[in-house]
Amino acid sequence: MVLRPFSVVHSIIYDEKKNKATGVRVIDSHTKEMTEYYARIIFVNAAALNTNLILLNSKSGRFPNGLGNDSGVLGKYFAFHNYRAHISGIYDGFKDTTTAGGRPTSAYIPRFRNVHRQETDFLRGYAAGFSGGRYSFPKPEGFGAALKESLAKKDPGPWRVGSHMMGETIPKVTNFVTLDPNKKDDWGIPQLDISVAYDDNDEKMVKDFMEQLSEMYSKAGFTEIKTSDSKQAPGLDIHEMGGVRMGRDPKTSMLNKWNQLHACPNVFITDGACMTSTSCQNPSLTYMAITARACDYAVSQMKKNEI
Ligand SMILES: Cc1cc2nc3c(=O)[nH]c(=O)nc-3n(C[C@H](O)[C@H](O)[C@H](O)COP(=O)(O)OP(=O)(O)OC[C@H]3O[C@@H](n4cnc5c(N)ncnc54)[C@H](O)[C@@H]3O)c2cc1C
Fold it and tell me: Which domain holds residue 290?
């Protein structure tokens, strides 16, 4: 394998005579020189947003709106996780224990809403993180032995606990990414315009998180419970997904069940761009499993000369 650093993929090369992708155009990030590399199959894994960008920027006579984009679905149904809501409190107990290094480790409250049946006025649900610690912010006093003594004597304060929500947002056609018609990056590649927003479902989920977690916190005996909504813009957190979604019908999806572009099967997309829903878990192990599965399939198909 040759690993080529300082390489910015500009687009995928599509051969109109062979009806397949034949390689990638790569810009050297230092010299800005463009080189073409050729391959029998291509895996695009630039993370969800940039994978969308590369496909949208891969225009040809056959695919004027981006590689594999016969349906016009490319870039649409973009989604993410909603981390807006937080809760914190204090626990006046366990004074004989304290924070030590990374302990106690953080915990995870799995989704408990709408798991077996629809039970709320919003769809799907959220998971929550949980962490606790005794944090002191010592003001150093004195020098030498006196300094050590003043630091050691510091009261770590009460246990402080906190949680954040990790909410599922529902992919929808109105959340999409496109190429900016005017703005380009340093390598002459169009920048991505990201048009995503929260909706009523997200607002209801934020409210429910605050109510449910407040009840849990007060039943656990926590006090000084405070909730907050950062109201930050969508996408300021992590776990972007979609835009090159998987599906049986080429009219409404970009990829088949093996992560191949319906309209250009020697190109595989196996990062978050392929996701059709976001669920509310950390997604990366799923991407890795999907990638391993697609690689296994690609190898078997190549051995049979099917791609
Ligand atoms: C702060 C933070 C915490 C996270 N915590 C978790 C977690 O606890 N659990 C979890 O499951 N997920 C977590 N995630 C998400 C996780 O990091 C991503 O889901 C994962 O890295 C996606 O893997 P990827 O290979 O698709 O993309 P990346 O890891 O982003 O890799 C994509 C690569 O492509 C390169 N690239 C992009 N465009 C081009 C181009 N045009 N040409 C050449 N190269 C290009 C990029 O430089 C990058 O190296 C976290 C993310 C962040 C930011």
Answer: 7-80+239-303
